[in-house]
Design a protein that fits this description.
The complex is a heterodimer of chains A (328) and B (333). Chain A has 328 residues and is of the alpha/beta class. Chain A has twelve helices and eight strands. Chain A has one domain: 3-Layer(aba) Sandwich (Rossmann fold), CATH 3.40.50. In chain A, the strands form two sheets. In chain A, strands 2-1-3-4-8-7 form a six-stranded parallel beta sheet, sandwiched between helices. Chain B is α/β, with parallel strands linked by helices. The chains are: A alpha/beta (328), B alpha/beta (333). The interface between A and B is large, with 45 and 41 residues. The complex binds thiamine diphosphate. Thiamine diphosphate (TPP) binds next to strand 5 of chain A.
């Protein structure tokens, strides 16, 4: 336990603590969202990312602000990580006009074009080709940005996945395809949906470099994402990253989870990316109890602020119903 | 009616010139579609464009309708101006997810943030004996969708002018072109001109009855009007041109002028454009009417292969003439 405190730089562990705190923010934010859902403040579908936080954090930290992001309906974490204000996200889930999509989208359709955040898409597989198009535009415009597209392993069974992979490779465009393999597409396990379950092998058919990584391990994801981004920025070519992960919660708030064993969930919870990374940081003495408590307190404050922002938000006038169908 | 102010051109050539001009004028514009480049376009509309503008501007794409329409949407979101060609309307169904769930929806779902300035051109129509999987008039599918601008290219003037106008739209445009007309010659203004893609257009003035139509119906109606003129019947022909959003004002205005109307379309009768037009007339101009409304539409069958059955499955000029005479109580019926 004896250590020379003078050897430790004041900035030491800052980056690591930031990763941890991002994952914690996502977790706490979603726990609050679930709470607001049971209070009927949030309605419709609400898909929680709890358990999968290391993927969004590890990948998005490797991106620059100019890089485009497209996600599924399970995208609160990605939006937070991209820097959308938690209040604006919460307001969107409430359906308030102060939301990031003016309340028109809700939980599944978070957008912030200024932040190159091109949404939450809820047609499984439907956003992959758009990602290829955004990357194609970057290539045509001679921009050096990458388009990063997140989707589940369920989407990898859609024809649009295969069309998009082929087009990206054929056109040599800078896309990072990130498959968040949480083992279930709603209630249907991977083994019932994919004949070949090593998903990374699907990239080979298109000549796309493909890597699978432990998606519960933030450092592994971070490293893999950085390698992927380096490759894409250097070559301008697509890359396929499979993050093997698990969602601890139900598919959405409507799911009774009849399809999986509680024991299985408990086993996976031992791999909790937040708890485990916190342990690692403690072991490496990169975080103190005080620092951890501080992070928690800060997050709590931020989330409380988000909720009150959403609460205070306003409902769009019904007379405006017809807006945003055509440009004004 | 050729004079020094107009010149003759085929429908195909009019479309091609429009593409050539678009590609010449704006670097953000590019054409993508199956066989648009090396093959020259399935219907030879883009023949020669690859050579002139190169493969970055005229892109051959694989058979991935959903994929390349989606990619067109993505590149439009990022500031490009793609023209996406879908070979025929039957194949467009494979891209319907992208067209409806993404192109038509993104602006709304993002609270006004995401524009999709994309032009999707689709070959369609009936009359070349291509049978049930290569010929249909499916304008109503698209016209049903808020968020899309749906254009029906029923004349040579529009074949030449609509693309440029569409490329100025901040919102997604679906342009339905009629392959049956590709070789047909028509007149267009000799001087450069622009067209308005928010308005219907009266193609022939008349006072006795209005024929309201679009697409393949336009020239059929004009032909019927010409023949009836010899009998002293003056038919007004309104080309809807824009199937969404419908130019209701022009519809009500022609009905208020002639007090009688027939809608003519090749599309299936139930739940078609005619249903919509007639409903609006009933709602808003009922007391202007001197005769019951009527419609001539496609027979409700998949398009058959034999010529005589194919012809029988869509209204012909002769059918239009018979219908008008009947409504006007004309002696010679
Ligand atoms: C095209 C389409 N089919 C079906 C659905 C219904 N649905 C929503 S999510 C889902 C499962 C998707 O699983 P996966 O892609 O693995 O993502 P995950 O939800 O596990 O993150 C299904 C079937 C849908 N939204 N879109």
């Amino acid at each position: 336990m004896k250590r020379n405190p003078s050897r430790k730089k004041s900035s030491s562990g800052e980056e690591e603590r930031a990763l941890l705190s991002k994952m914690m923010l996502i977790r706490k934010f979603e726990e609050k969202a679930a709470e607001q859902y049971t209070k009927e403040k949030i309605r419709g579908f609400l898909h929680l990312y709890i358990g999968e936080e290391a993927v969004a954090v590890g990948v998005i930290q490797a991106l620059s602000e100019e890089d485009n992001i497209l996600c599924t309906y399970r995208e609160h974490g990605h939006a937070l990580m991209r820097g959308l204000n938690p209040g604006v996200i919460m307001a969107e889930m409430y359906g308030k006009v102060e939301g990031c999509s003016k309340g028109r989208g809700g939980s599944m359709h978070l957008f912030d074009v200024d932040k190159h955040f091109f949404g939450g898409s809820a047609i499984v597989g439907g956003h992959l080709a758009m990602a290829v198009g955004l990357a194609l535009a970057s290539k045509k415009q001679k921009k050096n940005n990458v388009t990063c597209c997140f989707f589940g392993e369920g989407a990898a069974a859609e024809g649009e996945f295969h069309e998009a992979m082929n087009l990206a490779a054929l056109w040599k465009v800078p896309v990072l395809f990130v498959c968040e393999n949480n083992l279930y597409a709603m209630g249907t396990a991977l083994k019932y949906t994919h004949a070949m379950q090593d998903l990374e092998k699907k990239g080979a058919a298109y000549g796309i470099p493909s890597v699978a990584v432990d998606g519960m391990d933030i450092i592994a994801v971070k490293k893999a994402a950085e390698e992927a981004i380096n490759y894409i920025k250097e070559s301008g070519m697509p890359y396929f990253l499979v993050c093997n992960t698990y969602r601890f919660r139900a598919h959405s708030m409507f799911d009774a989870e009849l399809y999986r064993d509680k024991k299985e969930v408990e086993e996976w919870k031992k791999k909790d990316p937040i708890i485990n990374y916190h342990q690692v940081l403690k072991r490496k003495r990169l975080i103190t109890k005080v620092q951890y408590d501080q992070i928690e307190a800060q997050i709590k404050e931020e989330i409380d602020k988000a909720v009150s922002f959403a609460e205070k938000g306003s409902w769009e006038a019904v007379e405006d119903l017809g807006k945003f169908v055509y440009s004004e | 009616m050729a004079d020094e102010n107009t010149h003759k051109i085929t429908y195909r050539e009019a479309l091609k010139q429009a593409h050539w001009e678009a590609l010449r004028d704006d670097d953000r514009i590019f054409l993508m579609g199956e066989d648009v480049g090396r093959y020259g376009g399935a219907f030879a509309v883009s023949k020669g464009l690859l050579k002139e503008f190169g493969p970055e501007r005229v892109m051959d794409v694989p058979l991935s309708e959903s994929g390349f329409v989606g990619a067109g949407i993505g590149s439009a979101m990022a500031g490009m101006k793609p023209i996406v060609e879908i070979m025929t309307v039957n194949f467009s169904l494979l891209a319907m997810d992208q067209i409806i769930n993404n192109a038509a929806t993104l602006l709304h779902m993002s609270g006004g943030q995401v524009n999709v300035p994309l032009v999707i051109r689709i070959g369609c129509g009936i009359g070349r004996q291509l049978a049930a999987q290569h010929s249909h008039s499916w304008e109503p599918f698209f016209a049903h969708v808020p968020g899309l601008i749906v254009l029906s290219v029923g004349t040579h003037e529009d074949a030449r002018g609509m693309l440029a106008a569409s490329l100025k739209s901040p919102d997604p445009v679906v342009m339905l072109e009629y392959t049956f007309m590709l070789n047909r010659e028509g007149e267009i203004p000799a001087d450069p001109f622009t067209v308005d893609i928010s308005k219907a257009k009266v193609r022939r003035e008349g006072r006795d009855i209005s024929l309201i139509t679009y697409g393949n119906g336009v020239y059929k109606c004009l032909e019927a009007a010409e023949r009836l003129f010899e009998l002293g019947i003056e038919v007004e022909v309104l080309d809807l041109r824009v199937l969404r959003p419908l130019d209701e004002e022009s519809i009500l205005s022609t009905v208020s002028k002639t007090h009688r109307a027939i809608v003519v379309e090749d599309a299936w009768k139930s739940v078609g454009i005619a249903s919509e037009v007639l409903a609006r007339i009933s709602e808003k101009a009922f007391f202007e009417l001197d005769a019951p409304l009527y419609r001539l539409c496609g027979a409700e069958v998949p398009i058959p292969y034999p010529k005589h059955l194919e012809d029988a499955s869509v209204p012909q000029s002769e059918d239009i003439i018979v219908a008008i005479k009947k409504i006007l109580g004309h002696d010679s019926v």
